[in-house]
Every structure is written in C-alpha cells, then in structure tokens.
Amino acid sequence: MLVRSRPGPILACLTTLLLGACSGGGGGGGSGNGSNGSGGLSITGCSLTCLRSNSAGTQFSCSITQIAVNEELRVIFNSPINLATVNNNSFQVVERQSGKTPSGTFTLDSSSNSILVYRPLLTFDSSGNPIFGLTSGETYDFKIPGTALDTLGPFIASATGDENTTRLQCTLIASGIADPSPGAPRVTTTVSILDPQNPGQILPGQPAQGQVNVYRFSDVTMVFDDVMNPATLANPVTGQSVFVTVKVDSDGDPSTTGDQIAVDGAFTLTLDQTNLVTTLVFHATSGFPSAGAKVPVKRKIVVNLSPLISDLGGNPLINPGNVVFTNEVIPFPTQTITESFDDQTLEDSPHGGSTWGSGVLMTGPGGGSGRLGDLVVPRGTTVTLNTDFEDFSASAFADPAVFNPQLIVDPIAPLQVVGGVFEFSRLLVDSGATLRLVGSNPARLLVRGEIVIQGFLDVAGLSAAVHSATDFAGGVGEESGPGGGKGGPGGARPDGENFLAVGGVDNPNDPGPVNPLDPADYALLNGGAGGGIPFPNALANPPTFVGFGEGGLAWPQPGALPAPDDQIHFPADPDDAAGSFPYEPFAACQITVPGSAGAGGAHALDGRAGFTGFINVFGPVPPPLPPPASGGESDDLVITPVVRSLNPELGFLRGGGGGGGGGAHITVSSVNGQIGNDCNVPIGSPTLMIADFQAHSSAGGGGAGGGIQMQGGRRVVVNGNVVAVGGDGGSSVFPDLAMSGGGGAGGAILLQGPLVQVQSVPGRLLVDGGLGGLGPFGSLGGNGGPGFLRLETFLPLLSSSTEKSKISPTESELQALYGLGVTIDDVLSIAEWRPQDQPSGPSLLSGAQSCWYLIPGNFFQLVFEDDGAELGWDMPLRIQGFANPQSYRGENDLTGPGGQSLEELWGNDLGSAPVVVRFQGARAIAPILQPCGVALAGINSPILGGSLTSWVEKPAELTTVPSPSGATANMFRFTVIWDRSNPNFSMIQDVEEITIRITPD
Length: 1001
What we know:
This protein is mainly beta. Among the domains are: 3-178, Immunoglobulin-like; 187-325, no CATH class; 335-342 and 840-1000, no CATH class; 366-458, no CATH class. It contains seven helices and 59 strands. Strands 3, 4, 5, 7, 12 and 13 form a six-stranded mixed beta sheet that branches. It has a six-stranded parallel beta sheet with strand order 28-33-36-43-46-48, with no helix packed on it. Strand 25 (356-357) and strand 26 form a beta hairpin. The radius of gyration is 43 Å and the shape is flat.
C-alpha cells in the first residue's frame, strides 16, 4: 500500500498565498483581486500547485495530478467564501468511469475563511476497516466552474455575493493513502478520579498510569496525536476491539495475566481530520468493580494497547503496552438473599417441575433428578445415545452448548450411563435436528423440567437393505430401535460345488453342500426369525420371546409338506434329479417355485404372513408351494390394561417384534427332460439329470421399532416427530430372485407429564409397522404390526378423538389392514399420570431450579459466607406434626436442642436423602438481561468461558472451590431435588424459603 505525506512547503505556500507572497508560477499566483484583473471572486491557488493555463488568466490547472485516496483538496480564493454556495455542482469531483460523485465534506480553513477545504468522506466497513472517499486506481475529473468560461452554474460565491470568475479544471488519479501527520503517533490516556480533598467530587482528565481511587463510572479516554487507522483501534460498528483490551487484574499483579478478566463495555471512536487527532473512549457498561475491601492486594484495571496500533500512514504507536490504575474501594455489607417463593419471578421453569409460588416450594410429581444437566440437539446435527452404555465424556459431547458436564449434579468419573435411563434437567431437540437412541434396552428420558421436540426423536427400527440373490451370504437382518427385536437374516445361497459341471457356483462360506434329506442341514438356508418381545415382561429372568416374524423356508425342503410331497429336496448332485422338485414342463423343465418370504413382527396387533409368488405358466396342476412364514402373534403378549400402560418399572416398556428373513432357493434350475413327457424323459442322455443349477440367497427382515419413555416434570411438547416405526423388510434387486424379508413391528411411545402437548398435525407420533419387502414373481414379505402409544397427563385427560389425528397409523389404515373390528384404541391409550403410584425407580425423583441471582453494585466477586455465628445458608421446611417451619441446617423440634440438624439426620447425598440442595456459580462478563434464560456457552453467552462451577453442597464452596477457569463467581443459582422413594419424604410438606448470606467485594 502506497503511503505518502504531503510536504510541508505546500502548506507553507498556502499560508503565504493568503498574504499575497506566493508567485504565480509557484502557487498559482495572482494579484489578489481576481485572476482576470477585474473585480469579483477568483481563485488564486490550491494545494495541487494550481497554475494559470491561459493567457487571460481565467483558467487554472493542477501541476500535481496524483492524489491519495484520503487527501484533502484546498483551494484559495481572493476573498472570504459563502460556504452555503459550495456543493457538488459548484465544486465538482466526478469518478470518470462510473460518473459517480464520491462523498466528501466542505469546510473553511480555521486560519482563513478564504480557503475552501474538501475532504473525501472516511467511513468504515462492518469490521472497522476504513473506506476512503476516493478509490485507488480511479481517475477523477476535478472542476470548479467560473463565470468567465462557463455559462452554466452554479458558482461558488463570496461572502458579499460575488460569483467565482475563474475556472479550475484538472484530471486526478487516486492512489495510496496520505499520512496527514508524518511520524509515529503517541497516545495519552486519562481517567476520572475521586477528589481526595473534596469527597464526592470527581476530577476528570487525570493521567491514568499509576492512578489510584479511580471513579467507578469513569471512562477511559485515549487521545492519539494523529489520524489513526481505525481498523487497528476498534470496530466503530460493534464498539469492540482486539487491539485495545480493558481487564480487571484480580490479584493486583499485572505481570501475571491468567487471572485477568475482561471488563464489559464498548469503545467509541472519533477521528478529527481537521485537528489531526483521534480519540478512543472506553465506557464500561456497568462501571468498574471495587478494588476490593476483602483482598490483601487491591485489584487493578489494566488497559493494554497493542503494538500493532498504527496511524493511516502505517506508523506504529510509540508508546504501546499497559496502562495500569486502581479503582476506588467500595465497601459492601454482608447481606442475606432470601427466596421466599412468593411468585415465579426467579423460577427456572424449563428446568424444574415443582410447584413454586404462593409462598412455598412444594414437592414435584416426577421427571427424575436432572442429574445429567441439559441436552440440546442443535439444528442440522444428530446426537446418538446408546441405552446399553453411554459415555458422556466422549468427543460426541464435547460441545458445552450440547452437553455441559459442569451441569451434572454430583458427577462421578467416568461420566457413564448404563441401562438406558437418562436423567436430564431439560431436553431440547431443535427443528432440523435428530436425537437417535439405540441399544438393547428401551430408552427412558426422564427430564426434571421440560421436553421440547421440534425436530426428530428417532427410536425406529432400520429397514433391511435391498439384496442381490447372487450374494453368497443372505441379507442382514437389520437393527431395531432400543429394546426391540432385530430383523432375521435372509437365507444363504445354497452351495453349488457339486454342480460345477452344470452352472453351479462354489459358495466359499457356509452352508457348504446340503444333505438333501436332512432338514437340519437347511438351517443357514432358511430365513432367520426376527427378534422377539420379552414375555411376560422385560424384567423376567429369563424371559420367553414372542411376537417375532418367522423366517421363510428354503425351498425345496424335505418334510415341509404332507405326503407325497414330503420327499422333495435340494438335489445332492447333477444325477439327483428325482425327488428334487416337480419340474414345470411348460417352463423349459425348470423349478418355478422359490423359497418363502419372511413374515412381519407383532406388537399391538399381529404381524402378517409372507406371500410367495411363482412362475405361473398356466400348467394343469399348480406346483406345491412352501408353507408361508407366520407373522408374529400379538395375543402371545396377553395384552391387558397393565400391559398397555407401558410401565417401565413393571417391564412393559418394550419394542416390537422383528421381521423374518426370506428363504433361499434354486428357482429356474432345470433338468434335461422332454417337455412333452412331463420332463421325465431325458434328452441326449440315458439319465435324467440336473442340466442347469441356479442358487439364490434372500433378503433380511426389518428391525422393530424401539420403546421410549419421555417423562417431563414440567411438560412434554412435540412439534416435531417421535418415530418408533418398524423397519421395512429387504427387497430383491430387480430382476434377480432374492426372496423378500418381513417388516419389523412398530415400537412403543410413552409420554408422561403434567402437560403433554402434541402439535395438531398428522403423523407427529409414529408407531407404524414396517412394510414387507418386494420379491420375485410378486412375492411379498409380511408387514409388521403397529406398536403402542400412551399419553399420560394430569386431569383433565386428553381426548382420544383429538389425539388420534396426530398419530400414525390412522384408524382407517388399521381397518384397511385388519378389518373394521380394529380401532385406534388398539394402539392408543390415554390415562392420568399418577407418578406417586410408581413402586420405585428414578422417576420418583423430581426437582426445581432457580434462575440466576444477580446482586446489584460495582463489585468483582461474591464471597459466600460459611457457617459461623449465623448459618451460611438454610431452608425452613414444613414438617408434618409441627406447627412451625423447621430449620434444615440448624436446631429443630424433631431432634431437640443440641440435636442433629435435619441435613445431618437425613444426609445430603443424592439418591439416599429425601431432599438435597445444590448451588452453582458463574461469572457474568456482560449484562444479564434475562436471568432465567442465560446462554451458558456459545458466542452469544454473557458468561466467561470456564467460569461455570460444578454444583456444590453449600454456597461457601463457590468461594473456595475454583471454577475450571479459576474465575470467581459474581452470580449464583440453586436447585432442589426431591426423592419420593425415601422413607423420610412423606413427612416433608414444602420449603418455606431459602436464605443465603453473601458479602459482595
């Protein structure tokens, strides 16, 4: 970048011109009475070394034609100017290529009102980079019209009304940046202090370096003796800077920077191009904190000016580095913060389900402890939870905006969940996001506050892949949703090693050559059955598995049909044509019947049997078909109202039955028989034998939908989709001959909460069975049966007539498959949520959480008082049998004077006490506008990164136990967790208030 400084002689000449001392050749000259020798206003010179260019002296041109993109133009007249007559028409600067007039300003020089000054406008982009009025590399036409040569005005006029007579006309090329003030810049930093002689009086403009007793609401003013490059100071759009930082040094030692915390505030930038001065002012949003009344070394404010700061000419700052000063000491008294639960102002309702208000905090209905904190699945992402084993310290949970380990209540190492019970304080799945659950256990999402599903919650079974019959292995039976039955595998391709002479292919994998008369040898050729549903419940040990879709038989197979067809079988070798199968004389003596298709799994209703098609050549006698695979039987579940409750504690939250795989076969294998003799007379050979051997593997079954419980202590909102459908059975790759698999059954969805809201849009809750796959000759795998859906809320109950419109399958779809005797009530049930009826389990825990408590005042940190003459914190409880509230941490009427506190009596461990309270702190570095909706991570968070503490047992630990960043807290919150399963729980009626003693400092 070209940077130029205008030499001093030009400005000197401009000054002498005012005195009439410059010659006409050196500065434009002139008699001072008009260039044409007559009266009136005329040009006498300019900063571009203007010269008369005609003999009449009525036109001037410029000796200097190269100008900087920020260069001001000065034109000298012989008498004072009327600035109101100066505009873009009487003073023309036009970009030749575009015809545009660059923005600029017109002023009169402070030393003489006969000197007109044009300055190209300096603006800034969104990053604070300067945008100069002129564009580098562009050519500009510069003209000031004069009456002697121009017939059209307007014209610049003098203060007495005389119009300019002389024309100034030049061609200018813009390049580089001019340094208005040559040399490196220097900064002077000042603050306001409290007058030590006159308490209460403020002394502004005091040197900042080493200053003490600086006023808490003082601005920091930095004056640079040059026109600075604003991009190296602060972004004038956002008011932020990376080149100037203002921080609190908490230990008073500026040489150690690890303890320094940025002060929230904004910079205001002013460039004075007239006086060649730049002013940068930092205003702290809430003022500066106290230097500290309870610390041995006073806290400091450190203003750091980067050595990268420079002027427009690129000259670096002469005096970069730290400016350090000490604020005033503000003493704060110890105070007691009391939450009396009079209203919901400071209740964080999305994170709790307890009744907060009317002067008490009552126990909550359920939702779990919330011990894992929040889970937020952002738009465009997928989070997967495994119900067998989930490690929350894994990289998948590294983003604190998704899962923040600091929010875990009483964390254990490693951060693992086994068994599928996830206790969150809040669950949000954004629109366009997916929460997927996998594993062998049904999924249980217990949320202390609210569950909001805007995107997809996926516990569906997977669909089996399209399968090619030429694959040696059968198609894979697909995985189910959590707690559902896996799809059965397809039959493997029969081995053709003994038939190499007639088109057979050796199968390098099992099953190997088949003993044609041993049904046990067909195990890997038959389609596999789908995984079943544990009966009588998931807690049975060991359970019986029912409801699975059967796998299709491989074909032909001995013993599968009554006599005389019970001897049909796979041929053993090319000579084993007899008994292998009826060969169709109208189809080139081929076998025309494939194996059977897989059947669908069952759940709320039966799975469907598969359908086997064959090559229909309209022969007189239909060929014998393999027995169809049977669909799963829902009656095997013995479905009762208790079973339909889907109660996880009783083992009735289960996924559906998996679909069966298709059976292998040798369709289109043929013998060398004559068509006219029913293929029994050989052609060209004395022996009837296999002439062409063709073997086919088949597709797998679909996985069943899984089981999911979603219990919200506050509410459950579904505006997206909860998907527990069964996966489709595998299909054949057309036109080959893989037999199809059966569909998996739909799973189970249990929604529980005081309030359950499902958006009135069809298909929000899906428990459809998967479709059977498509096979050759019109074969179809059996469809899976639908699953269960249950909605439990407080009274009044939801209406089946309203809610059924939101689920899939619809009643009409069910009746199309199962007949008019089936209704939506076979799938959907609605009941009152009665968590107190639960015999045991994590859903008996509940809780409440406060918003952040913000203490007013210019303090740096909160010192939480420990127990002494007064308790550091306490909460009076209303206990059955006692008229007065009882102290939780002090003396009480239960144990008597000098006895144990209730905290000591009951313990303070989550899982073994009827109630526990935990506290959490953080450091805000920006104003908190909504204490109940603070973003704890991300670029918009007002929280210092790493300052969020763990949940601790008493507030005093927030002072003594450092946060991951080491920063102390300046705000706090609490959570109360109830355990209904504890024997002491029944005596607690409510919490009257919570008090916490703190000293701001």
